[in-house]
Write a structure and sequence with these properties.
This protein has 104 residues and is α+β, with helices and mostly antiparallel strands. The chain is 21% helix and 35% strand. The protein is built from 2 helices and 7 strands, in the order H-E-E-E-E-E-E-H-E. The longest helix has 16 residues.
């Protein structure tokens, strides 16, 4: 009986480790100024759910790892902070354009 229990343990252990987790995908986007329509560089982008962050390049382009329904927090000095939820459409299209507005 003891050998049978050990056999079952070794049989089912790989199944526990093979459970699939939620697939993290890379979402991309471009950040532009709402008033002048110029790409914004050095904008801080933080994935609040995974606590990972990045910044946009000089052309406003960024990439960040995110799951569906993760929240991205975008901030830049002198502009209103923005919280955006990652949607199915964004993951499928892989890119989007985000506009930030200046504070009054």
């Amino acid at each position: 009986m003891r050998y049978f229990a050990v056999f079952l343990f070794f049989l089912f252990t790989p199944l526990l480790f093979s459970q699939e987790t939620a697939a993290t995908s890379i979402v991309t986007g471009t950040i532009i100024n709402d008033f002048s329509k110029v790409p914004m560089g050095n904008v801080n982008i933080i994935n609040v759910n995974q606590v990972k962050g990045t910044i946009s390049d000089q052309k406003g382009y960024f990439e960040i790892a995110a799951n569906i329904n993760d929240t991205l927090h975008l901030s830049f000095l002198g502009f209103k902070s923005l919280r955006i939820r990652v949607t199915n459409d964004w993951v499928k299209n892989k890119t989007t354009q985000i506009t930030l507005t200046e504070k009054a």
